[in-house]
């Protein structure tokens, strides 16, 4: 892997408090290059209490203006952000690599995904259906009630705080899905920049600020606040003018924010995408013909980018048989053949080592992989396959914990009843996968039903890694995979997190929002007396 040195040009280390750069705070820090095993050169200034409050006040003032902007104007803003991100050029790629240890190819791929997300929400805004306009004009019910005119639509909820993700510095961070969807909804965004991605975050923030100025957005529509710990995020979460939070990260971090938001005088929603082990069930018959194919595909899914994906398959279930034993051996061989990969930072690497050791040192857990070569870089992870029997797995909830890194635990069950019991005991997950041929899938509909109750996305004969950005994607699931299973963190439907419905009763037509006017000048689809149409009334 190529090593990238941190490029200081165009990076100030300051906070974006609205449109201005600011460095009032006394606490400073540096990001870290896990590939070179040293800190990057640039100094970043953590946001002070005054800067935090100013950013929130600006966001609140901006909301009064921003929420009135047309979908077309917001669409132009999002497209301009995408353009300005591309204009940063190779500096963004170099900075990304220097702060993550990930490859240039991964950085370019993630930038492409980020651009696509921005364009997707821009397109959604122009289509207008996200408004979910509904009109009941002149009471049509066959009951004796006064005739009323009642109309409903979605409106933005207010300023949103987004916490940058460690493993996706672009697609799930500063201009990622949370930010793009919130801005599309009409909500100003304050980013709590991830402390290990602050250079990448500042570059993206500069693109957003330039786009905001060029398209006539109000000052405060976006801010980026540096943070070296948890204090900045806690202050933001407690601020009375913040109306919602978006988070991608650990269960501990997401739950902490959820608890803070719930204890406020006026609680607010926290949309946190957190921990998941993404169980995979391998049914018996498919292994008779596809063991080698499945083992190669899943070895790649477990180890790509050191397994640092929230959708990595961390648990694999099967029924004891010669075919399953052969699969375990082949999977372990394929995993062991992969090269060591760099983890995102020493803290994540240490957590991986601690949790991995805690599992493989347990009685009745057996490691199937061995380390035959010296790991030269202390930030490189040892890829691991371990195995436990179904009964021991069921008895030990700790075996369900997510191990963020290239690790997967195989659960060998004695029969289908034990397998169903093991799946029934699982916590909520982002994904669940079943590998099987058509006949055995039909025969095990009960097992599929059990799994579907646990997950946000259920997969047949594929891998869980790779999260498509589209309206059909659900990236969420029952707790603890997320704090609200009704919403997705990926795809255009994620805009719903930042909206609330409002009804307008007996309003004169000329005072109604443009989306609800009789003439339907935008030509959007609306429910009119329970019939979907884009025609005027």
What does this structure look like?
It is a single chain. The protein starts with 14 loop residues before the first strand and ends with a strand. Helix 3 runs antiparallel to helix 6. The longest helix has 24 residues. It folds into two domains: 268 residues, Aldehyde Dehydrogenase, Chain A, domain 1, CATH 3.40.605; 181 residues, Aldehyde Dehydrogenase, Chain A, domain 2 (3-Layer(aba) Sandwich). Strand 4 and strand 5 form a beta hairpin. It is of the alpha/beta class and 537 residues long. The strands form seven sheets. The chain has a seven-stranded mixed sheet, sandwiched between helices. It has a five-stranded mixed sheet with strand order 23-8-7-24-25, with no helix packed on it. Strands 11-10-9-12-13 form a five-stranded parallel sheet, with helices on both faces. 36% of the residues lie in helices and 19% in strands.
């Amino acid at each position: 892997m190529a090593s990238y040195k941190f490029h200081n040009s165009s990076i100030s280390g300051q906070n974006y408090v609205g449109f201005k750069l600011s460095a009032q705070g006394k606490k400073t820090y540096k990001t870290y290059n896990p590939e070179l095993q040293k800190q990057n050169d640039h100094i970043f200034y953590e946001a002070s209490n005054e800067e935090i409050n100013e950013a929130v006040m600006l966001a609140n003032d901006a909301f009064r203006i921003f929420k009135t902007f047309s979908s077309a104007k917001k669409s132009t803003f999002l497209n301009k952000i995408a353009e300005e991100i591309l204009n940063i050029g190779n500096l963004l790629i170099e900075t990304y690599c220097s702060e993550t240890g990930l490859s240039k190819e991964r950085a370019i791929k993630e930038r492409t995904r980020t651009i696509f997300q921005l364009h997707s929400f821009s397109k959604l805004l122009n289509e207008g259906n996200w408004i979910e306009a509904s009109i009941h004009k002149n009471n049509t019910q066959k009951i004796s009630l006064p005739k009323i005119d009642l109309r409903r639509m979605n409106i933005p909820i207010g300023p949103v705080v987004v916490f940058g993700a460690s493993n996706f510095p672009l697609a799930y961070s500063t201009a990622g899905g949370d930010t793009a969807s919130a801005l599309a909804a009409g909500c100003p965004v304050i980013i709590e920049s991830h402390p290990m991605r602050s250079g990448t975050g500042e570059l993206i923030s500069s693109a957003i600020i330039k786009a905001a100025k060029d398209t006539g957005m109000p000052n405060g529509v976006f801010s980026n606040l540096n943070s070296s710990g948890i204090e900045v995020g806690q202050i933001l979460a407690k601020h009375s003018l913040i109306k919602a939070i978006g988070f991608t990260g650990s269960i501990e971090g997401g739950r902490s924010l959820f608890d803070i938001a719930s204890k406020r005088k006026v609680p607010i929603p926290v949309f946190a995408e957190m921990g998941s082990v993404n169980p995979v069930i391998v049914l018996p018959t498919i292994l008779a013909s596809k063991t080698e194919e499945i083992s190669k595909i899943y070895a790649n899914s477990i180890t790509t980018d050191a397994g640092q994906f929230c959708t990595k398959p961390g648990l694999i279930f099967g029924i004891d048989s010669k075919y399953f034993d052969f699969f375990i051996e082949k999977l372990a061989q394929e995993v062991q053949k992969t090269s060591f990969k760099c983890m995102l930072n020493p803290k994540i690497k240490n957590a991986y080592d601690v949790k991995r050791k805690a599992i493989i040192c347990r009685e009745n857990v057996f490691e199937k992989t061995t380390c035959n070569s010296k790991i030269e870089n202390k930030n490189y992870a040892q890829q691991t396959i371990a195995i436990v029997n179904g009964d021991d797995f069921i008895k030990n909830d700790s075996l369900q914990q997510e191990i963020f890194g290239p690790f997967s635990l195989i659960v060998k069950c004695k029969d289908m009843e034990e397998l169903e019991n093991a799946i029934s005991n699982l916590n909520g997950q982002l994904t669940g996968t079943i590998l099987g041929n058509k006949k055995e899938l039909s025969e095990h509909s009960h097992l599929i039903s059990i799994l579907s109750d646990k997950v946000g996305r259920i997969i047949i004969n594929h891998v869980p890694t790779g999260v498509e950005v589209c309206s059909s994607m659900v990236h969420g699931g029952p707790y603890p995979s997320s704090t609200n299973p009704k919403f997705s963190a990926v795809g255009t439907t994620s805009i719903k997190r930042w909206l609330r419905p409002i009804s307008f009763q007996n309003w004169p037509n000329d005072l109604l929002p443009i989306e609800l006017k009789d003439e339907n000048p935008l030509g959007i689809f609306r429910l009119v007396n329970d019939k979907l149409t884009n025609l005027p009334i």
